[in-house]
Amino acid sequence: MDAGDTVTARQAAVGQLRILVVDDHAGFRRRARSLLEEAGLDVVGEAADGRECLEAVTVLHPDAVVLDIRLPGDDGFVVADRLAALERPPSVVLVSSRSLADFGERSLPSCVRGFIAKADLSATALRALLADEPA
Fold this sequence. Notes:
By secondary structure, the protein is α/β, with parallel strands linked by helices. It has helices spanning 3-14, 26-38, 50-60, 76-84, 123-130, and strands at residues 18-22, 42-47, 64-68, 91-96, 112-117.
């Protein structure tokens, strides 16, 4: 079962997509939470860095993680690699205020479903990536 099948199966089981927002800026986390919750998504938690993200995923079991690429310590690519190694990895959507091309030719872990610029983050864009539909 790939990450997309996992998200679909969990959504069907609980009827709600559970999201964890990971960013080192509290203001962005608050805005993202508000934006996603207003659109009906269930933001189950927030984390400020990779360590907090991994801890939150093991406790909260989100379906998806909105993960900033630029984090203190391990960057989002490293954190996504660690998430991909979990027995039941959440789907990951990378976000950044910079273009994904600015990060070079990094290979994306299997749990990464795509990238959304922070300015373009919306529940519609997030749902489309998680469902493998065009935004």
